[in-house]
Amino acid sequence: MNGERQPTSDALLTTLQQMIREFDETFVILDALDECKERQALLEDIDEIVAWKTGKAHILVTSRKENDIKESLEPLVNDENVICIQSELVTHDIRVYVRERLLTDRKLKRWQRKPEVQQEIEMTLVGKADGM
Q1: Are residues 116 and 72 part of one domain?
Q2: Residue 117 resides in a domain
Q3: What span, in angstroms and rounded, lies between the C-alpha atoms of 15 and 86?
Q4: What is the pTM of this model?
Q5: Rounded to whole angstroms, how far apart are CA atoms 47 and 72?
Q6: Which domain holds residue 115?
Q7: Which of 59, 63, 56, 55 is nearest to 83 (CA)?
Q8: At what angle are helices 115-129 and 88-104 packed, to 10 degrees?
Q9: What is the distance in angstroms between the CA of the first residue and the CA of the last residue of the chain?
C-alpha cells in the first residue's frame, strides 16, 4: 500500500526464512535485546528461527542480564557459547576512561578545578553504565 502499512511479523519471518535458504550462511545480530520494547515477541521469534533448524543461521544476541531473556535463551545455547562482559574489570575500564576524559578533555575543562563535581560525574556515569 505504497508504504502506508507495515508488514506483519509473520510476513517478515517468512521473508527471513526464504532469505536464509538462499545463502550458505546468514548472521543475525540483535544488539541490546534488553532495551527492546516488544521483547517477549522478539524472544518468541528467536525461538521460531532456531526451530527452523536450517543449519545456516547464526544468531548473536547482546543484552544485560535479565531473567526473562536468560530463561528464554538458556535452552537454545550451550554455556560455552555465552560470554559475560559485564564485570568488575569492565567497570574499572569505564572508570579509568571517564576519569581520563575529565582530566584532559578541553570541553570538560570547567570541571578541572572542582574535584567534587568530577567525582560526582564519574560516579554517576560508572553507576549508570552498570558494567556495560
Answers
A1: no
A2: yes
A3: 34
A4: 0.64
A5: 8
A6: 88-129
A7: 63
A8: 150
A9: 42
- pLDDT-derived band at 132, boundaries 50, 70, 90: low
| 77 plus 100 within the same structural domain | no
pLDDT tens digits, 38-65? 999 999 999 999 999 999 999 999 888 8
Contact between 34 and 64 (Cβ < 8 Å): yes
When pLDDT is averaged across residues 95-105 and rounded to a whole number, the result is 88
- The alpha carbon torsion through 73, 22, 10, 52 (nearest 10 deg) reads -40
Residue 70's CB: how many other CB atoms inside 10 A? Answer: 11
Matching residue, cell 526451530? 51
Asked, for residue 100, whether it belongs to a domain, the answer is yes
Residue for grid cell 553504565: 129
Distance of CA 6 to the CA centre of its chain: 25
Q: Is residue 131 scored above 70 in pLDDT?
A: no
Q: Buried b vs exposed e over 12-34: b needs ≥16 C-beta within 10 Å?
A: eeeebeeebeeeeebeeeeeebe
